[in-house]
Design brief:
elongated, about 575 residues, alpha+beta, four-stranded antiparallel beta sheet
């Protein structure tokens, strides 16, 4: 039997929603790590809390303005990396970073000082040869001779327009593992006891910085040679984030394979306008792309003009990230790239760090601890129980008041819940979104708003039936009137969620995000699921029975009104 006129349209809408669910769960089960569990926040799965102690070159107390600026920059890095559910708070003179999971390296990565300087390379030796007499180093500012370990021949000039495409012998950029090599502090405290037991930790840190500067940032070529011979790249670097850009520097490459003598900084990282990461398809490697501001662009052009076929180093927190050979110059346009053995994640992390600027302070880890999720799990169980009871009460009320139409409400809520769950899993996989208690509260409220939309629709149908129309005729007319009200109400809710997301911080953002998401899904479910189901039901004889749809009282009111009008007409 062919479908009645107009029934194909509701069926198409139901098919669209079924296809959306199929796509969502195909992405869940057949892409990425194929895990069907959403990422949980700190309060649900626990996390790692890292306390960072500020280090100042003079050992003084950090001022609150610097701490607030550092907090702001780290929060921007958190947002840039999509590390949802993280917290950054000021605790006295310390910063406390809490991240989901048990990997404290993520918190340490967020606290990288990220002071970038571009310095010419004066000399270089393999780290394995430290202790041997390196070639004579020129005085800072003089033209350097060919460096030991330098690429034997630069790549062809037309292979890339900038330093970012180094010769085949270029010093490798940071290895993705072990991650702590690029941090501003060691993964654990040094095991060597302090030289002077009478010094406080702050005084000892000041002494280490001063001693390192005296040796590794000396303008005396003989002292620089001695520093190159004595530097051990496997040990923590007290100069990280505290080197003077106006002095030469003896530094290690990030992989610890090369020791370099560098001239004074020619370009400061503050001159970076933007930083992005991407894949160089020609050379099959990940790179970080930099764009300089106006002054930085001029300095870059001058530097590349002076150092054609010589090396310049990109130095991040006293570690040489990359030291390529300048292939041609001067290079105009203020763009270049940093290349090396990056992974996609490490390239994105470095670009994100450089984009939001360097921290005004350097930090070292003073404490790391695991945050328990016991309290959060107890609250989760209580919240889910309350949500389940509330949902059951809503369904029972709908069944009692709307009879079989209550089943349409239940089916729509299940369809909405399936979509929400799948999207939560995908968002956790794609943008690092973590679901916490506040987010679950937003989901429950949003699903409740979905039930409100059903009530608006059903009441509009009853209004039409009070005018004397049948259930079959009242359903499409009621939908025409209800959808404007539903769209208006959801628009107000979405605007409120968006404003709350922009202005709020911490877990309140998660609440606003999930509330806005479920508000959008409410519209999708009502238009693609609830409305087609009701329209199809109105065309069947079974659902037209007052004992089934619960609209018998409304029909009785319509008959009484019609009889009263007829009586008035006769009078």
């Amino acid at each position: 039997m062919p479908p009645s006129q107009g029934s194909a349209h509701p069926l198409r809408l139901l098919g669209v929603y079924a296809a959306l669910l199929a796509v969502i769960y195909a992405l869940v089960f057949f892409t990425g790590d194929k895990s069907s569990t959403p990422r949980l926040g700190i309060d649900l799965q626990g996390g790692t809390r890292v306390t960072l102690t500020a280090r100042t070159p003079d050992g003084g107390k950090p001022n609150q303005d610097s701490l607030k600026k550092a907090q702001e920059i780290i929060e921007n890095r958190v947002n840039g990396l999509g590390v949802a559910g993280s917290e950054v708070v000021i605790d006295g003179d310390n910063l406390v970073i809490t991240v989901p999971g048990d990997d404290g390296a993520q918190a340490r990565a967020l606290a990288t000082t990220a002071k970038l300087y571009i310095r010419p390379v004066l000399n270089a030796v393999p780290a394995a040869q430290r202790g041997q007499a390196p070639p004579a180093a020129p005085a800072p500012g003089e033209a350097p001779p060919p460096a030991a370990g330098e690429a034997p021949a630069p790549a062809p000039a037309d292979s890339a327009p900038s330093v970012g495409a180094p010769a085949s012998g270029e010093v490798p950029a940071p290895q993705p593992e072990p991650a702590p090599q690029q941090r501003v502090f060691p993964a654990q405290a040094p095991t060597q006891p302090p030289a002077d037991p009478n010094l406080t930790p702050q005084e000892l840190a000041v002494k280490e910085i001063q001693d390192a500067k005296a040796v590794r940032q000396s303008s005396d070529p003989n002292i620089a040679q001695a520093a190159m011979a004595a530097l051990d790249c496997s040990k923590p670097d007290p100069l990280q984030g505290n080197d003077d850009p106006n002095l030469p520097l003896v530094a290690c490459s990030t992989d610890g394979q090369e020791i370099l003598l560098l001239d004074k900084s020619r370009i400061d990282g503050q001159e970076i306008k933007s930083a992005t990461s991407g894949m160089n398809t020609q050379q099959a490697r990940h790179e970080v792309y930099l764009e300089f501001k106006s002054a930085g662009s001029d300095a870059w052009s001058q530097l590349t003009g002076e150092y054609v076929n010589k090396r310049v180093a990109f130095v991040l927190d006293t570690k040489v990230v990359s030291a390529p050979v300048v292939q041609q110059g001067p290079q105009q346009g203020g763009r270049t790239q940093i290349s090396g053995n990056f992974t996609a994640a490490s390239a994105k992390e470095l670009a994100n760090t450089l984009k939001y600027g360097s921290l005004p302070l350097s930090f070292q880890t003073s404490e790391a601890e695991t945050v328990s999720a016991t309290l959060g799990l107890s609250s989760l169980k209580a919240g889910l129980l309350a949500g389940a009871i509330g949902l059951a009460v809503v369904l029972l009320y709908c069944l009692a008041y709307y009879r079989m139409l209550g089943f349409v409400t239940g089916l729509s809520l299940v369809a909405s819940g399936l979509a929400v769950y799948g999207i939560m899993v995908l968002l956790g996989r794609w943008i690092g979104f973590t679901l916490d208690l506040a987010g679950i509260a937003g989901l429950i409220i949003g699903i409740g708003m979905t039930a409100d939309s059903f009530v608006v629709f059903f009441e509009r149908i009853k209004d039409e039936m009070r005018e004397g129309r049948s259930f079959r005729s009242a359903a499409p007319r009621g939908w025409q009137r209800a959808r404007r009200t539903i769209l208006s109400g959801n628009a107000v809710s979405f605007i409120a969620a968006a404003v709350l997301y922009i202005l709020a911080v911490g877990q309140v953002k998660g609440f606003a995000f999930t509330l806005g998401l479920t508000t959008i899904l409410d519209v999708v479910v009502v238009f693609l699921m609830t409305s087609p189901l009701v329209l199809l039901a109105s065309r069947t004889n079974f659902w037209a029975k007052p004992s089934v749809n619960g609209l018998g009282a409304v029909q009785q009111i319509a008959r009484e009104r019609k009889a009263a009008q007829a009586a008035l007409g006769k009078a």
